[in-house]
Amino acid sequence: MKRNVFYSFQFEKDVLRVQQIRNMGVIDGDEPVSPNRWEEIRRTDEGVKRWITENLQRKTCLVVLIGEKTAASKWVRFEIAKAWELGIPVVGVRIHNLKCPRAGVGVYGVNPFNSLTLKRANGTVYTPKVYDPSAHDAYGIIKANLAGWIETAIRERA
C-alpha cells in the first residue's frame, strides 16, 4: 500500500533533490504547488499556515527531507509541530548526498528535530528517526527504503 505523505523541505536549496524523490514513485507525495498559486498563498503567514494545515490533514506521514538549510526554515519547523499536533507520524531523511543537477552533492545540515520538543500524550518526549543514506548510492538507498522508513514512523507514532 502506497502511503500519502507530506514532504517538508527548504525549497531554495533542495527543490531539485526533492523532485528526484517525488519521481521515484515509491510513495504518493504531495504535488508541487504551481508558482502562481504559491505566490498567492505566501502573501501572508496566515495563508501559509492555513495551506500547510489543510494539506497535512489528508496525509499519513510527514517526511522531512533534510538538507543544508532545512533546520533554519520557520515553515519546516511549523510543519513538524503541526503534523505532530494532528497525530501525524514524522520521519527525517537526509538528502545532501542526492546529486542535484545544478549544484552536485549538498552540504550536511543541522537536524531540524534538535530544536523542537515533540511530546507523546503520556508526556514522554519523542525524537523522530533520521536516516542518512550514504553518498555511494543515496538515490538507490532512498528508493529502496523510504516506504519502510515511513512504516516504521507510523508504527512508532501509534
UniProtKB/TrEMBL annotation:
<dbReference type="InterPro" id="IPR036490">
    <property type="entry name" value="ThsB_TIR-like_sf"/>
</dbReference>
<dbReference type="InterPro" id="IPR015032">
    <property type="entry name" value="ThsB__TIR-like_domain"/>
</dbReference>
<dbReference type="Pfam" id="PF08937">
    <property type="entry name" value="ThsB_TIR"/>
</dbReference>
<protein>
    <submittedName>
        <fullName>TIR domain-containing protein</fullName>
    </submittedName>
</protein>
<feature type="domain" description="Thoeris protein ThsB TIR-like">
    <location>
        <begin position="6"/>
        <end position="99"/>
    </location>
</feature>
